[in-house]
Amino acid sequence: MIFLITTILDQVRTETFEGEGEDAVIVDIEPSGMIVQGICTVGRMIVLAGAIWKGNSEFKEMNNVGIRKYFNTTGSGLLENSLSCAFCLTIYITNILRILGMRAEIAGLALASILGWGYMLFFVMAFRLTGPFVVMIYEMLLNDVLRFCVIYVVFLGGFSQTFFILFEQNGFGGFLVSVKQCFLGMLGDFDLDAYTETTYSYISVTLLIVYIIVVTILLLNLLVAMMGDTYGNIIEGATQVWHLERARIVFAIENEMSNEERNLPQNKYWTNVDGERYLQVEEVDANVFRKDKKDTGDNNDDDEKSG
């Protein structure tokens, strides 16, 4: 939230326009006042301090478990490790670029924003209501969408080169324009007149129809079908998926803790009794706990008498 407020205040400025309506032109830009700039500076320092603290925590975890095991985790563990490292690294680079006075800090700040909000998915996964849906998005992106993109790139490259030749466009920039047109064509946004005005208009229109049938109708519906199967598979075991991700979250948090923190009494979830391990729980209401235990014991005694 501090990062969001700092970003918004950083974009505050006074703009002077000349003209009216669509003809209005910005003629002067004045930066924000000293109070806003001071708040932005404090916010940046807080965000940087948080990134340094989190980066130090991730470095300790990486040092404890090893780099290979650190990035070989799955599910919420991989999401947390990847996004936290990427976010911290982006914040470091953005601050370095700001000190050097380079405009590239804007791109770094934009990337850090999407990484920071994406990191919130790690915390949402712990809830029963939202956890399975985050897992669905994760599985769809890494499996369904990835396979779709691999196949789609083949058709995109082939048809882009074909239309690049038929439109007789110029250089690599013309090829990129052709790629853009094919991508927009997949979404149904294309100009049919542009294809009919070429030298070989019949070939261009025919290939456009083939492209729409194969990509827009076939591949996109295939992607929807794959996502439907993924949704069905995950929703059937939603409770198990939720418990699994909660366990992974606990494991990820535990890996960030030092040995001293793990040995604290409040952080122990098992204890040794006569050489055997027992699960350690915290009593919220001792009276209710004893009552339930007594009722269970009475039921066992009644069963023994009945037997």
TrEMBL record:
A GO cellular-component term linked to this record: plasma membrane
Main location: membrane
Membrane topology term: Multi-pass membrane protein
Annotated compartments: Membrane
GO BP: any one term: calcium ion import across plasma membrane
GO molecular function terms noted in the UniProt entry: calcium channel activity
Keywords annotated in UniProt: Membrane, Repeat, Transmembrane, Transmembrane helix
Ion transport domain: residues covered: 80-234
Transmembrane segments: 78-100, 106-127, 148-167, 200-224
Signal peptide extent: none
Database matches in InterPro entries: Ion_trans_dom (IPR005821), TRPV (IPR024862)
Keyword Transmembrane attributed: yes
PANTHER family: TRANSIENT RECEPTOR POTENTIAL CATION CHANNEL SUBFAMILY V MEMBER 6-LIKE, TRANSIENT RECEPTOR POTENTIAL ION CHANNEL PROTEIN
The protein, known as: Ion transport domain-containing protein
Source organism of the structure: Adineta steineri
Origin organism lineage: Eukaryota, Metazoa, Spiralia, Gnathifera, Rotifera
